[in-house]
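Sample entry (149 residues):
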Amino acid sequence: MSALNIVTAVGEGDIEKCVEIARGLPEWFNEAGLKAIERDLREETTFVAVEGEEVFGFITIKPLNKKALEILWLAVGREHQGKGIGTKLLRFIEGWAKERGFELLVVKTSGDLTYKPYDETRRFYERRGFVRVAPIYVKHPENVLKSQL
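Predicted structure, serialized as C-alpha coordinates:
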Protein backbone atom coordinates (compact mmCIF):
# COMPACT_ATOMS: atom_id res chain seq x y z
CA MET A 1 0.00 0.00 0.00
CA SER A 2 2.96 2.30 -0.64
CA ALA A 3 1.09 4.26 -3.33
CA LEU A 4 -1.68 5.37 -0.97
CA ASN A 5 -2.53 9.05 -1.46
CA ILE A 6 -4.84 11.44 0.35
CA VAL A 7 -6.81 13.59 -2.11
CA THR A 8 -9.90 15.78 -2.13
CA ALA A 9 -13.05 13.80 -2.92
CA VAL A 10 -14.51 14.87 -6.22
CA GLY A 11 -17.78 13.95 -7.82
CA GLU A 12 -20.47 11.35 -7.37
CA GLY A 13 -18.12 8.41 -7.79
CA ASP A 14 -16.14 9.28 -4.67
CA ILE A 15 -19.32 10.02 -2.71
CA GLU A 16 -20.76 6.61 -3.64
CA LYS A 17 -17.52 4.85 -2.66
CA CYS A 18 -17.43 6.63 0.71
CA VAL A 19 -21.07 5.76 1.45
CA GLU A 20 -20.35 2.12 0.53
CA ILE A 21 -17.44 2.06 2.99
CA ALA A 22 -19.74 3.37 5.73
CA ARG A 23 -22.52 0.95 4.72
CA GLY A 24 -20.06 -1.89 5.25
CA LEU A 25 -19.61 -0.80 8.88
CA PRO A 26 -23.15 -1.13 10.31
CA GLU A 27 -21.92 -1.32 13.90
CA TRP A 28 -20.86 2.33 13.51
CA PHE A 29 -23.26 3.72 10.90
CA ASN A 30 -27.02 3.11 10.90
CA GLU A 31 -29.40 4.32 8.18
CA ALA A 32 -29.76 7.77 9.74
CA GLY A 33 -25.97 8.02 9.93
CA LEU A 34 -25.62 6.97 6.30
CA LYS A 35 -28.05 9.70 5.23
CA ALA A 36 -26.10 12.26 7.26
CA ILE A 37 -22.82 11.03 5.76
CA GLU A 38 -24.19 11.35 2.24
CA ARG A 39 -25.44 14.88 2.97
CA ASP A 40 -22.13 15.92 4.53
CA LEU A 41 -20.10 14.41 1.71
CA ARG A 42 -21.96 16.75 -0.65
CA GLU A 43 -21.86 19.85 1.58
CA GLU A 44 -18.57 19.70 3.47
CA THR A 45 -14.88 19.06 2.70
CA THR A 46 -13.93 15.39 2.32
CA PHE A 47 -10.59 13.75 1.67
CA VAL A 48 -10.19 10.15 0.55
CA ALA A 49 -7.35 7.68 0.93
CA VAL A 50 -6.87 6.20 -2.52
CA GLU A 51 -4.63 3.88 -4.41
CA GLY A 52 -5.36 4.08 -8.12
CA GLU A 53 -9.15 4.11 -8.42
CA GLU A 54 -9.78 2.30 -5.11
CA VAL A 55 -10.96 4.34 -2.12
CA PHE A 56 -9.81 2.80 1.17
CA GLY A 57 -11.21 5.40 3.58
CA PHE A 58 -12.37 8.97 4.01
CA ILE A 59 -12.50 11.87 6.42
CA THR A 60 -15.06 14.69 6.30
CA ILE A 61 -14.46 17.98 8.10
CA LYS A 62 -16.32 21.20 8.84
CA PRO A 63 -15.02 24.48 10.23
CA LEU A 64 -16.77 25.48 13.46
CA ASN A 65 -15.16 28.92 13.39
CA LYS A 66 -11.84 30.46 12.31
CA LYS A 67 -9.84 28.46 14.87
CA ALA A 68 -11.74 25.16 15.35
CA LEU A 69 -12.33 22.37 12.86
CA GLU A 70 -14.67 19.43 13.46
CA ILE A 71 -14.14 15.93 12.11
CA LEU A 72 -17.63 14.87 11.08
CA TRP A 73 -16.79 11.42 9.72
CA LEU A 74 -13.76 9.17 9.53
CA ALA A 75 -14.11 5.65 8.15
CA VAL A 76 -11.84 3.00 6.68
CA GLY A 77 -13.16 -0.05 4.85
CA ARG A 78 -13.23 -3.09 7.12
CA GLU A 79 -10.75 -5.02 4.98
CA HIS A 80 -8.26 -2.14 5.26
CA GLN A 81 -8.56 -1.41 8.97
CA GLY A 82 -5.49 -1.82 11.16
CA LYS A 83 -3.12 -0.77 8.37
CA GLY A 84 -2.59 2.84 9.45
CA ILE A 85 -5.01 4.39 6.94
CA GLY A 86 -7.19 6.06 9.58
CA THR A 87 -4.08 7.47 11.25
CA LYS A 88 -2.79 8.71 7.90
CA LEU A 89 -6.12 10.46 7.21
CA LEU A 90 -6.10 12.02 10.67
CA ARG A 91 -2.47 13.20 10.39
CA PHE A 92 -3.23 14.63 6.95
CA ILE A 93 -6.11 16.68 8.38
CA GLU A 94 -3.95 17.88 11.27
CA GLY A 95 -1.41 19.27 8.79
CA TRP A 96 -4.11 20.65 6.50
CA ALA A 97 -5.75 22.41 9.46
CA LYS A 98 -2.49 23.91 10.78
CA GLU A 99 -1.64 25.27 7.32
CA ARG A 100 -4.96 27.11 7.34
CA GLY A 101 -4.62 28.59 10.82
CA PHE A 102 -6.86 26.22 12.77
CA GLU A 103 -5.77 25.64 16.36
CA LEU A 104 -8.27 23.05 17.56
CA LEU A 105 -9.54 19.80 16.08
CA VAL A 106 -12.80 18.45 17.53
CA VAL A 107 -14.55 15.11 17.09
CA LYS A 108 -17.76 13.78 18.65
CA THR A 109 -18.30 10.11 19.40
CA SER A 110 -21.17 8.11 20.84
CA GLY A 111 -21.60 8.56 24.56
CA ASP A 112 -22.47 4.91 25.16
CA LEU A 113 -19.40 3.80 27.11
CA THR A 114 -20.49 0.16 27.04
CA TYR A 115 -20.72 -0.16 23.25
CA LYS A 116 -17.47 -1.76 22.13
CA PRO A 117 -17.20 -0.27 18.60
CA TYR A 118 -17.42 3.28 19.93
CA ASP A 119 -15.12 2.49 22.81
CA GLU A 120 -12.60 1.44 20.13
CA THR A 121 -13.29 4.71 18.27
CA ARG A 122 -12.62 6.81 21.37
CA ARG A 123 -9.41 4.88 22.06
CA PHE A 124 -8.30 5.43 18.44
CA TYR A 125 -8.55 9.19 18.89
CA GLU A 126 -7.13 9.23 22.41
CA ARG A 127 -4.05 7.23 21.32
CA ARG A 128 -3.47 9.94 18.73
CA GLY A 129 -3.50 12.84 21.17
CA PHE A 130 -7.17 13.68 21.55
CA VAL A 131 -8.55 14.21 25.05
CA ARG A 132 -12.11 13.85 26.27
CA VAL A 133 -13.39 17.29 27.21
CA ALA A 134 -17.14 17.07 27.74
CA PRO A 135 -20.18 14.90 27.34
CA ILE A 136 -22.88 16.55 25.24
CA TYR A 137 -26.41 15.62 26.20
CA VAL A 138 -28.86 15.67 23.37
CA LYS A 139 -31.25 12.93 22.35
CA HIS A 140 -28.23 10.58 22.39
CA PRO A 141 -25.28 11.49 24.60
CA GLU A 142 -22.03 12.06 22.75
CA ASN A 143 -18.48 12.59 23.92
CA VAL A 144 -16.42 15.45 22.56
CA LEU A 145 -12.72 14.86 22.13
CA LYS A 146 -10.31 17.55 21.06
CA SER A 147 -6.69 17.85 20.05
CA GLN A 148 -4.55 20.97 20.16
CA LEU A 149 -2.88 21.45 16.78
